[in-house]
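The authors assume throughout that readers already know how a fold can be written as discrete tokens. Each protein is reduced to its one-letter sequence and a matching series of backbone shape codes. I therefore recommend that a typical entry be quoted early in the introduction. For illustration, here is how one protein appears when written out as sequence plus structure tokens:
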Amino acid sequence: MSASGSSSEQPWQPPSSSGKGFRLPRIQLWDLGGPLAWAYMLGYLAVMLILPISALLAKSSLVPLEQFIARATEPVALSAYYVSFSMAIVAGVINAVFGFLLAWVLVKYEFPGKKWIDAAVDLPFALPTSVAGLTLATVYSEEGVLGSLLMKLGVNVVYTRLGVAVAMVFVSFPFVVRTMQPVLQEMEKEVEEAAWSLGASPWTTFTQVLLPPLLPPLLTGTALAFSRALGEFGSIVIVSSNFPFKDLIAPVLIFQCLEQYDFVGATVIGTVLLLISLVMMVGVNWLQSYAQRFRK
């Protein structure tokens, strides 16, 4: 008789129902990850993006075509479109240049106070737009620190289109910086050193080696800054006079229409802004894809 702790003993196993053995089916939660992720994504897009846009388009489709064209091409509306898009383009260009420079300095150089400046870049994200408008109006007014100096030079910022541009630059400034920083951080220093070892000048290295891969994210950041500037309302209401044919922007014109219970006018102007913005965003995305294909 063998001992109770003998190594020859085998653990008990339940009898199998077939020669291949019997196993209980197991449901793996990660097998459901794909359908759940797709359902969540489609549901979120439907509720937050597709339904509001569809509701606006459905509301505007109820307006007769002749009335839609007449309201969309009113002189006040055309002036508001011009001020909105022209100042948003100016703000996007300014942010593209100086945002790129700031991102370059924050990534490439070390200096005292770098963390404080890097944290201050996100201030327009956290600051309410009405507070931003009040701050800009205080600084650039006739009694403000910068406004008094500019008034001596004959430059008035508050209650002009220049004030609209300044407010748009302020609220949309972080987009280019935050879009460029990760790309600059991933660029290898060896690429620059290889170009220098081959006799390339710093300017040639920047324009021929570094700039091409930076163009797509720069376009993305500029497009985001433009979109944010185009939709700005709270700060511009404070720093501009909101007079038609002067510095009235389209979002403020929509608000004025709603105050006067002119829901048709607000719907028409909002639809025009939506369509123009959509066309411009599609164009920017096409430029990004073209730049990537050209780089390859």
